[in-house]
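Q: Focus on the shape:
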Amino acid sequence: MIHLITGGQRSGKSSRAQEFALSLTDSPVYVATARVWDEDFEQRVERHKDDRDERWNTLEVEKALGDIKVERRVVVVDCITLWLTNFFMDTDQDVDRSMELAKDELEKLFEKDCTLILVTNEIGMGTHAHTESGRKFADMQGWMNQFIAERADNVTLMVSGIPVEIKG
């Protein structure tokens, strides 16, 4: 099963994903995809770590999602947006190459016998990016969300902490 949880910044996506995972198992896997870019972001990462207790097995995976060993597990990947940023930066903001590499990793992940709960951002619902790289990334994120949503069994949009089921 593939579950996609999407929404804006601070919409409750991660909390919803964690609550859902814990409703399915007492020992979920949390896949953290973020690189720590600065002190502020490090504080965000620490807050997310504090949200999880000893029941969670945490893996830190910057790009190689297809290589994780998670068969027959409930897995939260948080988040697709930060994971996609890693490809975008490592390819010098090449959207086509980033999408190709990311889709290859997701296809390998989707083949695994596990329950996936993927967290992503709807960044295109906010203001129009002021920079070319911001616009390129917003477009790429939208295309990636569509790619995942098409394959997902369930899609939930988080709005102000309220889950809105939009598929499944």
